[in-house]
Structures are given as structure tokens and as C-alpha cells.
Design brief:
Structural class: mainly alpha
CATH class: Mainly Alpha
Low-confidence stretches: 1-12
Oligomer: single chain
Radius of gyration: 20 Å
Strand content: under 5%
Largest sheet: none
Length: 143
């Protein structure tokens, strides 16, 4: 193959370094998405980073990506009530009511009890008219 006079830059796996001006233009959430994304590339099982990264993905409405992170969290801590609650919310906003309700049930079984928050959490709005949602809350509020 013929070569032109230009030399190609060697490819590296190092992330691009942003200038201070570029960093100043980024929102806090975008900065954290980049920051925690890079940490998780090196340490994919870093629980606290996974939790923050998932929350930031949700804030950016990147629900499918958040869903994948939440599944990893549950692999690390299968009985984490908050992880199951967050996963249920992702299923709800992705219009998967059966998975959302079964995962919300697990969250409640593992001890999630912030019923006031459940009743106001906008992520669960797609479930509110489902009679199974109301029945589930009644079942666990009485426990």
C-alpha cells in the first residue's frame, strides 16, 4: 500500500486530556460521567463509583446505560434494597412494567421502606395506574 508523506499518530488507550477551558465548559454531571467512567474502565467492580455513575446516567436520562450499571451493582450486592429500587425505576421509565414491579417487590422484600418517596418518585409514574403497583405498596406498608 502506498504511503503519503504524513505520519499517522500512534493509537493509545490513554484518555484525551481536556484543557482547563474545556473542563470549565462541562457541567458537573458531565464531568462526573467522564471521571467515574474512566475509574470504572480500570476498576469495574468499584461499588461506590458504580452507584454514583448510575445516578449520573439517570440524571442525563441515559436509562439503558444506567440499567446495565445497576445490574452490575446487584451482581456485587444481590440483597441491596436500594440497588433493586433503582433498577425498578429504570425498568419503569423504559416501559417494562412487569420487570419494574417484580424488581420493586424485591427492593421491598430486602427492606426498602421509603413509601413517601415511592409515592412521589417520577420515575415510577408509568406504574401508578397499574393495580399491581397499588396492591404491592399496600402489601408492604402493612408489614
Amino acid at each position: 500500500m502506498a504511503r503519503t508523506g504524513k505520519q499517522r499518530e500512534p493509537e493509545t488507550s490513554e484518555p484525551a486530556i481536556l484543557s482547563l477551558a474545556d473542563l470549565a465548559k462541562q457541567s458537573q454531571i458531565d464531568f462526573e460521567l467522564d471521571f467515574f467512567g474512566q475509574i470504572l474502565d480500570r476498576h469495574p467492580l468499584f461499588f461506590e463509583a458504580l452507584r454514583v455513575h448510575s445516578s449520573n446516567l439517570v440524571a442525563r436520562r441515559r436509562y439503558q446505560e444506567s440499567l446495565q450499571v445497576e445490574r452490575r451493582i446487584i451482581q456485587l450486592r444481590p440483597k441491596d434494597a436500594l440497588a433493586h429500587y433503582n433498577l425498578a425505576c429504570s425498568y419503569a421509565v423504559l416501559t417494562q412494567p412487569d420487570l419494574a414491579l417484580s424488581t420493586l417487590r424485591k427492593a421491598l422484600e430486602y427492606g426498602y421502606r421509603d413509601f413517601r418517596y415511592i409515592r412521589q418518585d417520577r420515575d415510577l409514574d408509568p406504574l401508578r395506574k397499574d393495580p399491581r403497583f397499588k396492591k404491592l405498596l399496600r402489601e408492604f406498608e402493612q408489614v
